Amino acid sequence: MSEPATAPRARTYDPNNAEEVFRVLGEEIEAAKLKVALDRRLGRKTSESVIELSQIRLPEHLGRVVDG
């Protein structure tokens, strides 16, 4: 059974603010990692795009921006 399509979420950050962009990107990467882990545990298939997102590593100096 496939997942229902969802509408794109409204942007909640300023795309011209690098700190906000990297914060949101970091949150999306962490959410993708969680989805991959849950799907694996529950025996579900994870989409390639989510797997690829979960494998992105932000450079260390950007991670400090994301972590605060």
Question: What gyration radius follows from the Cα positions, in whole Å?
Answer: 14 Å
- Average pLDDT score: 85
Structural class by sheet pairing and helices:
mainly alpha
Instruction: Give, in order, the helices and strands.
Output: HHH
Quote the distance from N terminus to C terminus: 39 Å
Q: Could you estimate the helical fraction of the residues in percent?
A: 55-70%
Describe the fold and architecture.
The protein is an all-alpha fold and 68 residues long. It has helices at 18-42, 48-54, 60-67. The N and C termini lie far apart (39 Å).
Quick gist of this model?
The protein has 68 residues and is an all-alpha fold. Helices cover 59% and strands 0% of the residues. It has one domain (18-67).
